[in-house]
Amino acid sequence: MSNNKSSVQINPRGTIFEVLGVSTRLGLTSFGGPIAHLAYFREEYVARRKWLDDKSYSDLVALCQFLPGPASSQVGIAIGMMRAGLLGGIASWIGFTLPSAIALAVFAYTVHGIDIAKAGWLHGLMVVAVAIVAQAVWGMSRTLAPDRNRATIAIVTAIITLFWPTAFGQVFLIITGGIIGWLFLQKSQVPETPSLKVPISRNMAIVAWVLFFGLLLGLPLLRQINSAHWLAVFDSFYRVGSLVFGGGHVVLPLLQAEVVPPGWLTDTQFVAGYGAAQAVPGPLFTFAAYLGAVMNGWPGAIIATVSIFLPSFFLIAGALPFWDAVRRRPQFQAALNGINASVVGILLAALYHPVWTKAILSPADFGLALAAFALLMIWKLPPWVVVLFSAAGGALIDVLS
Protein backbone atom coordinates (compact mmCIF):
# COMPACT_ATOMS: atom_id res chain seq x y z
CA MET A 1 0.00 0.00 0.00
CA SER A 2 2.79 2.42 0.90
CA ASN A 3 4.47 1.84 -2.43
CA ASN A 4 1.29 2.81 -4.20
CA LYS A 5 1.04 5.97 -2.18
CA SER A 6 4.62 6.98 -2.79
CA SER A 7 4.21 6.58 -6.54
CA VAL A 8 1.14 8.80 -6.78
CA GLN A 9 1.88 11.60 -9.18
CA ILE A 10 0.30 14.01 -11.57
CA ASN A 11 -2.10 12.24 -13.96
CA PRO A 12 -0.67 11.05 -17.31
CA ARG A 13 0.66 13.82 -19.51
CA GLY A 14 -1.92 15.95 -21.27
CA THR A 15 -1.81 18.29 -24.25
CA ILE A 16 -1.19 22.01 -24.43
CA PHE A 17 -4.70 22.45 -25.80
CA GLU A 18 -6.18 20.72 -22.76
CA VAL A 19 -4.14 22.98 -20.48
CA LEU A 20 -5.12 26.04 -22.51
CA GLY A 21 -8.82 25.21 -22.33
CA VAL A 22 -8.88 24.69 -18.57
CA SER A 23 -6.71 27.72 -17.78
CA THR A 24 -8.76 29.96 -20.08
CA ARG A 25 -11.92 29.06 -18.22
CA LEU A 26 -10.13 29.88 -14.98
CA GLY A 27 -8.90 33.14 -16.49
CA LEU A 28 -12.47 34.11 -17.30
CA THR A 29 -13.98 33.21 -13.92
CA SER A 30 -11.28 33.57 -11.23
CA PHE A 31 -12.28 36.74 -9.43
CA GLY A 32 -11.22 37.80 -5.94
CA GLY A 33 -7.43 38.17 -5.98
CA PRO A 34 -4.50 35.75 -5.54
CA ILE A 35 -5.83 33.90 -2.48
CA ALA A 36 -9.09 33.21 -4.30
CA HIS A 37 -7.13 32.16 -7.40
CA LEU A 38 -5.33 29.47 -5.39
CA ALA A 39 -8.71 28.26 -4.19
CA TYR A 40 -10.06 28.13 -7.75
CA PHE A 41 -6.94 26.23 -8.85
CA ARG A 42 -7.29 23.69 -6.07
CA GLU A 43 -10.93 23.05 -6.92
CA GLU A 44 -10.21 22.64 -10.66
CA TYR A 45 -6.83 20.90 -10.74
CA VAL A 46 -6.97 18.85 -7.52
CA ALA A 47 -10.60 18.18 -6.64
CA ARG A 48 -12.21 17.98 -10.08
CA ARG A 49 -9.51 16.92 -12.54
CA LYS A 50 -7.09 15.22 -10.13
CA TRP A 51 -4.06 16.35 -12.10
CA LEU A 52 -2.21 16.30 -8.78
CA ASP A 53 -2.97 15.54 -5.15
CA ASP A 54 -3.56 18.00 -2.31
CA LYS A 55 -0.11 17.46 -0.80
CA SER A 56 1.73 18.12 -4.07
CA TYR A 57 -0.45 21.15 -4.73
CA SER A 58 0.25 22.64 -1.32
CA ASP A 59 3.98 22.03 -1.80
CA LEU A 60 3.82 23.95 -5.08
CA VAL A 61 2.01 26.80 -3.33
CA ALA A 62 4.74 26.85 -0.67
CA LEU A 63 7.46 26.98 -3.35
CA CYS A 64 5.79 29.85 -5.18
CA GLN A 65 5.29 31.77 -1.94
CA PHE A 66 9.08 31.82 -1.57
CA LEU A 67 9.75 32.98 -5.13
CA PRO A 68 9.35 36.59 -6.23
CA GLY A 69 6.51 37.33 -8.61
CA PRO A 70 2.77 36.56 -8.76
CA ALA A 71 2.36 33.38 -6.70
CA SER A 72 -1.00 32.29 -8.11
CA SER A 73 0.17 32.71 -11.71
CA GLN A 74 3.34 30.80 -10.90
CA VAL A 75 1.32 27.91 -9.46
CA GLY A 76 -0.70 27.80 -12.68
CA ILE A 77 2.46 27.91 -14.81
CA ALA A 78 4.01 25.11 -12.73
CA ILE A 79 0.95 22.86 -13.12
CA GLY A 80 0.92 23.56 -16.86
CA MET A 81 4.60 22.63 -17.13
CA MET A 82 4.09 19.39 -15.24
CA ARG A 83 1.09 18.53 -17.37
CA ALA A 84 2.49 19.36 -20.83
CA GLY A 85 6.09 20.56 -20.52
CA LEU A 86 7.36 24.08 -21.20
CA LEU A 87 4.67 24.69 -23.81
CA GLY A 88 2.10 23.62 -21.24
CA GLY A 89 3.39 26.30 -18.88
CA ILE A 90 3.06 28.88 -21.64
CA ALA A 91 -0.45 27.65 -22.48
CA SER A 92 -1.46 27.85 -18.82
CA TRP A 93 -0.15 31.40 -18.56
CA ILE A 94 -1.86 32.51 -21.78
CA GLY A 95 -5.21 31.07 -20.75
CA PHE A 96 -5.16 32.51 -17.24
CA THR A 97 -3.71 35.89 -18.20
CA LEU A 98 -5.06 36.79 -21.63
CA PRO A 99 -8.72 37.53 -20.70
CA SER A 100 -7.87 40.17 -18.11
CA ALA A 101 -4.93 41.54 -20.14
CA ILE A 102 -7.17 42.12 -23.16
CA ALA A 103 -9.93 43.63 -21.01
CA LEU A 104 -7.53 46.09 -19.38
CA ALA A 105 -5.88 47.04 -22.67
CA VAL A 106 -9.33 47.71 -24.17
CA PHE A 107 -10.20 49.73 -21.08
CA ALA A 108 -7.11 51.87 -21.66
CA TYR A 109 -8.42 52.68 -25.13
CA THR A 110 -12.10 53.23 -24.43
CA VAL A 111 -13.76 53.41 -21.04
CA HIS A 112 -11.22 54.88 -18.63
CA GLY A 113 -13.77 57.52 -17.62
CA ILE A 114 -16.40 54.99 -16.56
CA ASP A 115 -16.60 53.98 -12.91
CA ILE A 116 -17.81 50.39 -12.53
CA ALA A 117 -16.41 49.87 -9.06
CA LYS A 118 -19.88 50.02 -7.49
CA ALA A 119 -21.65 47.76 -9.97
CA GLY A 120 -23.87 45.14 -8.31
CA TRP A 121 -22.60 42.27 -10.46
CA LEU A 122 -19.02 43.14 -9.51
CA HIS A 123 -19.92 43.00 -5.82
CA GLY A 124 -21.49 39.59 -6.45
CA LEU A 125 -18.14 38.42 -7.80
CA MET A 126 -16.49 39.58 -4.60
CA VAL A 127 -19.07 37.62 -2.59
CA VAL A 128 -18.41 34.38 -4.48
CA ALA A 129 -14.73 34.71 -3.54
CA VAL A 130 -15.84 34.20 0.09
CA ALA A 131 -17.37 30.84 -0.81
CA ILE A 132 -14.43 29.78 -2.96
CA VAL A 133 -11.83 30.63 -0.30
CA ALA A 134 -13.93 29.05 2.47
CA GLN A 135 -14.10 25.84 0.45
CA ALA A 136 -10.33 25.88 -0.05
CA VAL A 137 -9.67 26.51 3.66
CA TRP A 138 -11.92 23.61 4.59
CA GLY A 139 -10.37 21.19 2.10
CA MET A 140 -6.73 22.16 2.69
CA SER A 141 -7.09 22.18 6.48
CA ARG A 142 -8.33 18.57 6.44
CA THR A 143 -5.24 17.52 4.47
CA LEU A 144 -2.54 19.91 5.71
CA ALA A 145 -3.55 20.57 9.33
CA PRO A 146 -5.35 17.39 10.43
CA ASP A 147 -3.66 16.96 13.81
CA ARG A 148 -3.32 19.11 16.92
CA ASN A 149 0.21 20.36 16.25
CA ARG A 150 -0.35 21.47 12.67
CA ALA A 151 -3.79 22.88 13.43
CA THR A 152 -2.17 24.96 16.18
CA ILE A 153 0.45 26.26 13.75
CA ALA A 154 -2.33 27.21 11.32
CA ILE A 155 -4.45 29.03 13.91
CA VAL A 156 -1.53 30.92 15.46
CA THR A 157 -0.35 31.93 11.98
CA ALA A 158 -3.84 33.18 11.14
CA ILE A 159 -4.05 35.28 14.29
CA ILE A 160 -0.62 36.85 13.77
CA THR A 161 -1.38 37.50 10.08
CA LEU A 162 -4.50 39.46 11.01
CA PHE A 163 -2.36 41.81 13.09
CA TRP A 164 0.63 41.82 10.73
CA PRO A 165 -0.86 41.78 7.20
CA THR A 166 2.26 42.47 5.16
CA ALA A 167 4.18 40.51 2.53
CA PHE A 168 7.22 40.41 4.80
CA GLY A 169 5.07 39.17 7.68
CA GLN A 170 3.72 36.32 5.57
CA VAL A 171 7.18 35.23 4.44
CA PHE A 172 8.41 35.40 8.06
CA LEU A 173 5.50 33.26 9.29
CA ILE A 174 6.03 30.70 6.53
CA ILE A 175 9.71 30.40 7.43
CA THR A 176 8.80 30.16 11.13
CA GLY A 177 6.29 27.41 10.35
CA GLY A 178 9.03 25.54 8.52
CA ILE A 179 11.44 25.82 11.46
CA ILE A 180 8.76 24.62 13.89
CA GLY A 181 7.91 21.71 11.61
CA TRP A 182 11.57 20.74 11.27
CA LEU A 183 12.15 20.86 15.03
CA PHE A 184 8.91 19.52 16.48
CA LEU A 185 6.83 17.56 13.96
CA GLN A 186 7.59 13.92 14.54
CA LYS A 187 8.23 11.53 11.70
CA SER A 188 4.86 9.90 12.32
CA GLN A 189 3.24 13.21 11.40
CA VAL A 190 5.03 13.41 8.06
CA PRO A 191 3.01 11.54 5.40
CA GLU A 192 4.56 9.81 2.43
CA THR A 193 5.30 12.30 -0.29
CA PRO A 194 3.95 11.67 -3.79
CA SER A 195 6.44 12.06 -6.61
CA LEU A 196 6.17 15.02 -8.97
CA LYS A 197 7.32 14.15 -12.47
CA VAL A 198 8.60 17.30 -14.15
CA PRO A 199 9.28 17.05 -17.92
CA ILE A 200 12.09 19.61 -17.69
CA SER A 201 15.75 18.61 -17.42
CA ARG A 202 18.12 20.05 -14.85
CA ASN A 203 20.30 21.39 -17.67
CA MET A 204 17.32 23.33 -18.94
CA ALA A 205 16.70 24.55 -15.39
CA ILE A 206 20.26 25.89 -15.20
CA VAL A 207 19.72 27.69 -18.52
CA ALA A 208 16.56 29.27 -17.04
CA TRP A 209 18.51 30.56 -14.03
CA VAL A 210 21.24 31.99 -16.31
CA LEU A 211 18.61 33.79 -18.40
CA PHE A 212 16.82 35.10 -15.32
CA PHE A 213 19.91 36.70 -13.80
CA GLY A 214 21.38 37.60 -17.18
CA LEU A 215 18.37 39.75 -18.08
CA LEU A 216 18.02 41.15 -14.57
CA LEU A 217 21.62 42.39 -14.61
CA GLY A 218 22.03 42.99 -18.32
CA LEU A 219 18.90 44.97 -19.20
CA PRO A 220 19.87 48.04 -17.11
CA LEU A 221 23.24 48.09 -18.91
CA LEU A 222 21.60 47.82 -22.33
CA ARG A 223 19.23 50.60 -21.32
CA GLN A 224 22.20 52.88 -20.74
CA ILE A 225 23.58 52.08 -24.19
CA ASN A 226 20.31 52.10 -26.14
CA SER A 227 17.70 54.78 -25.41
CA ALA A 228 14.84 52.96 -27.16
CA HIS A 229 11.60 53.40 -25.25
CA TRP A 230 10.55 49.76 -25.64
CA LEU A 231 13.82 48.62 -24.04
CA ALA A 232 13.26 50.94 -21.08
CA VAL A 233 9.74 49.58 -20.64
CA PHE A 234 10.98 45.98 -20.88
CA ASP A 235 13.69 46.64 -18.28
CA SER A 236 11.32 48.37 -15.84
CA PHE A 237 8.60 45.73 -15.97
CA TYR A 238 11.03 42.80 -15.97
CA ARG A 239 12.74 44.19 -12.87
CA VAL A 240 9.41 44.62 -11.07
CA GLY A 241 8.41 41.04 -11.93
CA SER A 242 11.79 39.79 -10.69
CA LEU A 243 11.98 41.58 -7.38
CA VAL A 244 8.48 41.92 -5.95
CA PHE A 245 7.62 39.50 -3.13
CA GLY A 246 4.05 39.01 -2.05
CA GLY A 247 2.56 39.58 -5.51
CA GLY A 248 -0.85 41.16 -5.96
CA HIS A 249 -1.21 44.60 -4.50
CA VAL A 250 2.43 44.69 -3.41
CA VAL A 251 3.38 45.29 -7.05
CA LEU A 252 1.44 48.56 -7.28
CA PRO A 253 3.88 50.94 -5.55
CA LEU A 254 6.78 49.44 -7.50
CA LEU A 255 4.96 49.95 -10.80
CA GLN A 256 3.95 53.46 -9.83
CA ALA A 257 7.59 54.31 -9.15
CA GLU A 258 8.59 52.98 -12.58
CA VAL A 259 5.95 54.62 -14.79
CA VAL A 260 4.82 57.89 -13.16
CA PRO A 261 8.12 59.71 -12.33
CA PRO A 262 9.47 59.29 -15.90
CA GLY A 263 6.24 60.82 -17.22
CA TRP A 264 5.01 57.69 -18.98
CA LEU A 265 1.66 57.99 -17.14
CA THR A 266 0.00 60.49 -14.87
CA ASP A 267 -1.13 59.62 -11.36
CA THR A 268 -4.74 59.96 -12.52
CA GLN A 269 -4.22 57.46 -15.33
CA PHE A 270 -2.48 55.07 -12.96
CA VAL A 271 -5.27 55.16 -10.37
CA ALA A 272 -7.97 54.78 -13.05
CA GLY A 273 -6.28 51.63 -14.33
CA TYR A 274 -5.93 50.24 -10.83
CA GLY A 275 -9.67 50.65 -10.33
CA ALA A 276 -10.35 48.77 -13.56
CA ALA A 277 -7.98 45.98 -12.53
CA GLN A 278 -10.24 45.23 -9.56
CA ALA A 279 -13.13 44.46 -11.91
CA VAL A 280 -11.50 41.78 -14.05
CA PRO A 281 -10.68 38.14 -13.29
CA GLY A 282 -7.18 36.74 -13.36
CA PRO A 283 -3.91 38.07 -11.91
CA LEU A 284 -3.49 41.68 -10.84
CA PHE A 285 -0.14 41.70 -12.68
CA THR A 286 -2.15 42.12 -15.91
CA PHE A 287 -2.44 45.73 -14.76
CA ALA A 288 0.77 45.94 -16.81
CA ALA A 289 -1.32 45.51 -19.98
CA TYR A 290 -3.26 48.67 -19.14
CA LEU A 291 -0.09 50.62 -18.39
CA GLY A 292 1.57 49.47 -21.61
CA ALA A 293 -1.51 50.29 -23.68
CA VAL A 294 -1.68 53.81 -22.27
CA MET A 295 2.01 54.30 -23.08
CA ASN A 296 2.14 52.79 -26.54
CA GLY A 297 -1.06 51.06 -27.59
CA TRP A 298 -1.23 47.33 -28.23
CA PRO A 299 2.53 46.92 -28.77
CA GLY A 300 3.12 48.55 -25.39
CA ALA A 301 0.53 46.29 -23.76
CA ILE A 302 2.25 43.19 -25.14
CA ILE A 303 5.75 44.28 -24.11
CA ALA A 304 4.69 45.27 -20.59
CA THR A 305 2.66 42.10 -20.00
CA VAL A 306 5.28 39.69 -21.32
CA SER A 307 8.16 41.38 -19.51
CA ILE A 308 6.48 41.45 -16.08
CA PHE A 309 5.58 37.74 -16.26
CA LEU A 310 8.78 36.51 -17.97
CA PRO A 311 10.76 36.20 -14.70
CA SER A 312 8.09 33.81 -13.39
CA PHE A 313 8.75 31.41 -16.27
CA PHE A 314 12.48 31.40 -15.62
CA LEU A 315 12.00 30.96 -11.87
CA ILE A 316 9.51 28.10 -12.16
CA ALA A 317 11.45 26.31 -14.91
CA GLY A 318 14.63 26.76 -12.87
CA ALA A 319 13.14 25.51 -9.60
CA LEU A 320 10.83 22.63 -10.56
CA PRO A 321 13.46 20.06 -11.67
CA PHE A 322 15.21 20.37 -8.29
CA TRP A 323 12.06 20.82 -6.19
CA ASP A 324 10.87 17.21 -6.12
CA ALA A 325 14.23 15.88 -4.88
CA VAL A 326 14.42 18.54 -2.17
CA ARG A 327 10.84 18.20 -0.96
CA ARG A 328 11.12 14.41 -0.56
CA ARG A 329 13.92 14.56 2.00
CA PRO A 330 12.50 13.52 5.42
CA GLN A 331 13.81 16.55 7.34
CA PHE A 332 12.71 18.98 4.66
CA GLN A 333 9.37 17.22 4.45
CA ALA A 334 8.86 17.83 8.18
CA ALA A 335 9.68 21.50 7.63
CA LEU A 336 7.38 21.59 4.62
CA ASN A 337 4.51 20.25 6.68
CA GLY A 338 5.00 23.14 9.08
CA ILE A 339 5.14 25.51 6.11
CA ASN A 340 1.92 24.10 4.66
CA ALA A 341 0.16 24.49 8.00
CA SER A 342 1.26 28.14 7.99
CA VAL A 343 -0.09 28.55 4.46
CA VAL A 344 -3.47 27.26 5.69
CA GLY A 345 -3.33 29.86 8.47
CA ILE A 346 -2.55 32.66 6.02
CA LEU A 347 -5.44 31.52 3.83
CA LEU A 348 -7.73 31.44 6.88
CA ALA A 349 -6.74 35.00 7.80
CA ALA A 350 -7.31 36.12 4.21
CA LEU A 351 -10.79 34.60 4.33
CA TYR A 352 -11.63 37.22 6.95
CA HIS A 353 -9.57 40.10 5.59
CA PRO A 354 -9.68 41.18 2.85
CA VAL A 355 -12.10 38.63 1.34
CA TRP A 356 -14.92 38.72 3.95
CA THR A 357 -14.56 42.33 5.08
CA LYS A 358 -14.74 43.68 1.52
CA ALA A 359 -17.57 41.44 0.33
CA ILE A 360 -20.03 40.78 3.19
CA LEU A 361 -21.62 44.16 3.86
CA SER A 362 -25.23 43.14 4.52
CA PRO A 363 -27.42 40.13 5.43
CA ALA A 364 -28.21 39.75 1.73
CA ASP A 365 -24.49 39.44 0.95
CA PHE A 366 -24.13 36.76 3.63
CA GLY A 367 -27.11 34.88 2.22
CA LEU A 368 -25.62 34.98 -1.28
CA ALA A 369 -22.29 33.72 0.06
CA LEU A 370 -24.03 30.84 1.86
CA ALA A 371 -25.90 29.92 -1.31
CA ALA A 372 -22.68 29.96 -3.32
CA PHE A 373 -20.93 27.83 -0.68
CA ALA A 374 -23.77 25.30 -0.77
CA LEU A 375 -23.65 25.10 -4.55
CA LEU A 376 -19.93 24.35 -4.34
CA MET A 377 -19.84 22.00 -1.36
CA ILE A 378 -23.21 20.24 -1.49
CA TRP A 379 -24.33 20.44 -5.10
CA LYS A 380 -20.76 20.15 -6.44
CA LEU A 381 -21.39 22.63 -9.25
CA PRO A 382 -18.40 23.87 -11.29
CA PRO A 383 -16.94 27.13 -9.98
CA TRP A 384 -17.68 29.03 -13.19
CA VAL A 385 -21.41 28.26 -12.79
CA VAL A 386 -21.32 29.51 -9.21
CA VAL A 387 -19.48 32.66 -10.37
CA LEU A 388 -22.24 33.45 -12.87
CA PHE A 389 -24.88 32.74 -10.21
CA SER A 390 -23.21 35.13 -7.77
CA ALA A 391 -22.80 37.87 -10.38
CA ALA A 392 -26.54 37.66 -11.13
CA GLY A 393 -27.30 37.57 -7.41
CA GLY A 394 -25.18 40.66 -6.78
CA ALA A 395 -26.96 42.51 -9.57
CA LEU A 396 -30.36 41.51 -8.14
CA ILE A 397 -29.39 42.65 -4.64
CA ASP A 398 -28.27 45.99 -6.10
CA VAL A 399 -31.62 46.45 -7.86
CA LEU A 400 -33.67 45.55 -4.80
CA SER A 401 -31.67 47.58 -2.29
From TrEMBL:
<keyword id="KW-1133">Transmembrane helix</keyword>
<dbReference type="Pfam" id="PF02417">
    <property type="entry name" value="Chromate_transp"/>
</dbReference>
<feature type="transmembrane region" description="Helical">
    <location>
        <begin position="152"/>
        <end position="185"/>
    </location>
</feature>
<feature type="transmembrane region" description="Helical">
    <location>
        <begin position="237"/>
        <end position="255"/>
    </location>
</feature>
<comment type="similarity">
    <text>Belongs to the chromate ion transporter (CHR) (TC 2.A.51) family.</text>
</comment>
<keyword id="KW-0472">Membrane</keyword>
<dbReference type="InterPro" id="IPR014047">
    <property type="entry name" value="Chr_Tranpt_l_chain"/>
</dbReference>
<feature type="transmembrane region" description="Helical">
    <location>
        <begin position="121"/>
        <end position="140"/>
    </location>
</feature>
<dbReference type="InterPro" id="IPR003370">
    <property type="entry name" value="Chromate_transpt"/>
</dbReference>
<feature type="transmembrane region" description="Helical">
    <location>
        <begin position="334"/>
        <end position="352"/>
    </location>
</feature>
<keyword id="KW-1003">Cell membrane</keyword>
<keyword id="KW-0812">Transmembrane</keyword>
<feature type="transmembrane region" description="Helical">
    <location>
        <begin position="301"/>
        <end position="322"/>
    </location>
</feature>
<protein>
    <submittedName>
        <fullName>Chromate transporter</fullName>
    </submittedName>
</protein>
<feature type="transmembrane region" description="Helical">
    <location>
        <begin position="205"/>
        <end position="225"/>
    </location>
</feature>
<feature type="transmembrane region" description="Helical">
    <location>
        <begin position="359"/>
        <end position="378"/>
    </location>
</feature>
<feature type="transmembrane region" description="Helical">
    <location>
        <begin position="86"/>
        <end position="109"/>
    </location>
</feature>
